[in-house]
Write a structure and sequence with these properties.
alpha/beta; homodimer
Chain lengths: 329, 329
């Protein structure tokens, strides 16, 4: 039996469509090029600050695109999602706009700020024990009981297409400047953001290298990209990057990322902390640990960017004030 | 004797010229419109984040425009400036680009970050006692001894024209969106930024109200605008807004501001602290006390903005990490 012609789960046209869907509510974030960062790295460095997105992370894009596709008659059952905090807020904010009830399953040790902000959008928050309970099972049970639609954090074509609008905007802004990127880097957990970004970027700039960035302790993408197949991380199971603690790449996302990504880079916990302090002191941007990991890898010299044009996605800025105070001190 | 026809010290054409001068080196900062802030205030709120400017404040614009006008044969004598910290960095950074030596006279109690950053551009820093010494006299003595050119922090047409590019960019971005502002607010110390901004904004949007914002303890602009003449502040002489501690409006700046500004608003020390925490938590922007005072006045309800379009300049983000940690905690 012949294999069917492989068709990508998400196309550039899907991302164009998502851009239209989210436009009335999502923030069109700018592309920054801070001189202090370019000087430091010896490269043309652009930052895509998704910290400025509605809810403080890119997650609103994918959540809103997915939830807008739920048929009207299924909307009254609401939505359910599991998330360490940023997808939680994205789903909760989208549910408020779309007038749907939302239940979010969050780990009990997720940052307080993320739990409070999720509740502030009117969502019900159900806490679980990260070490002993299965968040997907809890979410599926709630979905079954309430007739709610599950909004997956990454392994879903509509979610990936929504996150891909980040890449589409990067391409639009670079095109307007007459600049082609050599390298594009985004943080990965399940890989939804980078899958969407890579789809958009490779369609417009096929020669660009797209790289995933993750904490040393959760290096499943770096490993999987080296191995050419999905592999779990080799770390110790904890990181200050609370947003990036997926154990293994998603199936749909890796079907995309395995083809489009050049490599995976990592940063240590200390390098992440240093990058947060740098962003505070020099860039005046509040970035959370999981959002800064690409910049951390660049500042630590783990990406060969000298003389090149590199784009780094700062994916989120929802960090507790006590951790932040400790890291910038 | 008849009075001569009064001609404004700075024209809209001067600001256009300054925009051309600073373009190769200044950051073209974006105009943000955070949904969370619009929802909170019940207005269309735009932020002009000059925290993203080279050196972390708008001051680079005026300093570079002024220093670019120094004749070549006078450049080797270098420049001297007095400043609590942001003008210091603006002058130091401009001097480095223009290859001129720079000496900056700073108060001994200015934030450590500002002193360190000023030195990092290669400037010599001379400290003085804010309560017992006259910074202008010290700067003039150095200027005389070294043949250096004094770069005033605000009371200078070239400096005002440079700061006016902030207003010009606001107008350009609003025009592109097809939006006219009802209110434009910027922090004031000596009044250079607001004089430039008002000149640019009133030329393009004559019906817009331009307002100065300052700490309660340094309310000299609010008083002077009410009185129709320059008056000193009525406060106790200290504020966490270290950048806004001028005692009385400038002469040239008030010749402009007395005509173009609608009123002056103030914020208390507590309101400033609250606005910094709001910007951290909700906007993901690092703003220093003196840079956030307009936003503080808005959030505290001191500006009647409901249903209107309002633009707030966030003028700087150079804040020491220990003070910042205390304010966001």
């Amino acid at each position: 039996m012949n294999e069917p012609l492989s068709r990508a789960p998400v196309s550039s046209a899907d991302i164009d469509a998502a851009a239209g869907v989210i436009a009335p509510f999502a923030v069109r974030t700018p592309l920054l090029c801070p001189p202090v960062l370019c000087d430091r790295v010896g490269a043309k460095v652009f930052l895509k600050p998704e910290i400025l997105q509605r809810t403080g992370s890119f997650k609103f894009r994918g959540a809103f695109n997915k939830m807008s596709s739920i048929p009207q008659d299924a909307r009254k059952g609401g939505v359910v999602a599991f998330s360490s905090g940023n997808h939680a807020q994205g789903v909760a904010a989208a549910a408020k706009i779309l007038n749907m009830p939302a239940t979010i399953v969050m780990p009990a040790d997720s940052p307080l700020l993320k739990r409070e902000r999720t509740k502030s959008y009117g969502a019900e928050v159900v806490l679980y024990d990260r070490d002993r309970e299965d968040r997907e099972a809890i979410a599926r049970e709630i979905a079954g009981k309430r007739g709610a639609t599950l909004v997956p954090p990454y392994d879903d074509p509509k979610v990936i297409a929504g996150q891909g609008t980040v890449g589409r905007e990067i391409c639009d802004d670079l095109t307007a400047l007459g600049i082609a990127p050599d390298i594009v880097v985004a943080p990965v957990s399940g890989g939804g953001l980078i899958a969407g970004v890579a789809t958009a970027v490779k369609a417009r700039f096929p020669q660009a290298m797209v790289m995933s960035a993750e904490p040393e302790n959760f290096d499943d993408h770096a490993r999987s990209l080296r191995a050419g197949k999905r592999e779990a991380h080799g770390g110790k199971g904890r990181s200050i990057c609370d947003a990036l603690m997926a154990a293994i790449p998603g199936e749909i996302t890796f079907a995309i990322n395995g083809k489009l990504l050049s490599k995976g880079v990592t940063a240590s916990e200390a390098e992440v902390g240093h990058a947060i302090a740098f962003a505070f002191r020099e860039l005046k941007l509040v970035v959370e640990p999981g959002g800064v990991v690409g910049l951390a890898a660049l500042l630590a010299g783990h990406i060969d960017a000298r003389g090149k044009t590199i784009v780094i996605v700062l994916s989120g800025g929802n960090v507790d004030s006590d951790l932040y105070a400790r890291l910038i001190g």
